[in-house]
Design brief:
The protein has 206 residues and is α/β, with parallel strands linked by helices. The chain has 2 domains: 29 residues, no CATH class; 171 residues, Vaccinia Virus protein VP39 (Rossmann fold). Helices cover 32% and strands 19% of the residues. It is globular.
Length: 206
């Protein structure tokens, strides 16, 4: 009689990942609540790393060119940026509100020897140096008020420098805000392993 193999509880797997990362001098997996980072719920959300399988699946299905650049809003400890760096992007950028997470992110990149990336520590509302980017990625990083401001920044950038934009929204808790925005059209909805993701573009009709 074949015995069923018991699944290892997620909490144990989670703690195991944290331990293995610490042994390598890395820190991606450990979660942090909003108040732990010194912020309020109206400006930020808790930190958790992006779902690796979902992100890889999404990026592998996009027509990424060597001239493309992607910006990760709410880049945290840089986990998604590490994954993005394995694809065909010319540059991978990140915006992170927390000084603590930004410091950890830069340490992670240094340990891994990753150089073709840049993380900017500031409020996403105030970050407007986005003209070089044509891909934008969000893993539910902030509440509605910040998302609306970010969309406005992207729209202003497109008006100054017209270009096709791909907007990737994973764990799309406020997708109605993006869907209702006149700038974007939904081109695909993806039911991933962990979360619902939506991909938008400002130029999907040919």
């Amino acid at each position: 009689m074949i015995k069923k193999i018991k699944r290892i509880p997620k909490a144990i797997v989670h703690r195991g990942k944290i331990l293995l990362e610490k042994m390598r001098g890395l820190d991606f997996t450990q979660h942090h609540m909003v108040d732990e980072l010194g912020f309020s719920d109206d400006m930020a959300k808790a930190y958790a790393p992006s779902p690796i399988e979902d992100l890889k699946m999404i990026l592998s299905e996009l027509d990424i060119q060597p001239t493309d650049a992607i910006l990760d809003y709410g880049s945290g400890k840089g986990f998604a940026m590490v994954i993005m760096n394995n694809f065909n992007f010319n540059f991978v950028g990140g915006v992170e509100l927390s000084k603590r997470l930004t410091k950890i992110c830069r340490t992670n990149f240094s340990k891994l020897g990753i150089k073709n990336v840049g993380v900017f520590q500031c409020n996403a509302i105030e970050f407007k140096e986005i003209d070089r980017f044509n891909y934008f990625y969000l893993f539910n990083p902030f509440p509605e008020i910040v998302l609306k401001a970010v969309l406005q920044n992207i729209q202003e950038s497109i008006e100054k420098h017209p270009r096709k934009i791909i907007f990737i929204y994973v764990c799309a808790r406020h997708k109605e805000i993006v869907s209702d925005h006149p700038m974007f059209e939904e081109i695909r909805e993806i039911k991933g392993k962990d979360w619902e993701s939506v991909i938008y573009s400002n130029e999907f009709k040919k």
